[in-house]
Design goal:
By secondary structure, the protein is mainly beta. The chain has a single domain, classed as Beta Barrel (Porin), CATH 2.40.160. 2% of the residues lie in helices and 68% in strands. An eight-stranded antiparallel beta barrel has the order 3-6-7-9-10-11-12-14. The chain has a three-stranded antiparallel β-sheet with strand order 5-4-13, with no helix packed on it. A hairpin with a 5-residue loop joins β4 and β5. The longest helix is centred in the first third of the chain and has 4 residues. It is elongated, with a radius of gyration of 32 Å.
Amino acid sequence: MEPLSLTRVPSPGRTVRIGLTADLSAATLNGGNRGDAPPSFDWTGAYAGLHAASGLSGFQMADFSRDGGPGQNYRFKDTSLRAAGLQFGYDHQFANNIVVGAGGEFSWLKADNKVMQIAGRERGSAHANWLASVQGRIGYAIGDVLIYGTAGYAVADMRGGYDSARRVSGELVWSGTSDTSRFSGWTAGGGIEYALSKNITVKGEYSFANLSKGSFNPPELDGSSYSWKIKPRMDQLRLGVNYRF
């Protein structure tokens, strides 16, 4: 750029010419020649990270049967749920900013050990140990921000118990039986992910799981056999961080 040019000072009676040129390019207006603007964040690639969650879990004691008799249904009150775990996956961003991907998650669960009174001398319990899922996701990228939805298959490790009481020498004595089983179903949710840097992103999301397939068949108790389903459902609000490779 040549900001100012002057002709030589002329002799008397001659014309003086002053020329002024300016470069009004975007680089100049932004404070000088800094090269090209950095490209928008590219969501294509593999990632792995950690998450923590809080929410609610609900259980049913469905189709509860004693010695093969007719099933009865009981419902637990919702109980608080906390979770922590890891996730991994791969995303691909298309030219129109649509992002599709697939991934997996594993969470250790801590839910209040819920006990429900079935009758005066009978009670049931339910507890969640862990939750795993494989999911697809689709979203729309707006620069450093990705808005997305998810859906997939989930399985949880659950422990269920049944207790009954009888009077011995005038006192109630409780005895019980329990079983651990896997329950499976579907999961769905959505959230927002934000890129802090080229490799680090953070996210907040809502996730719901409805797990209706599975049953408990514990050892006999006092000569009677029992079976039931628990049909867990879980609502979670999650915060997570990912490292993108």
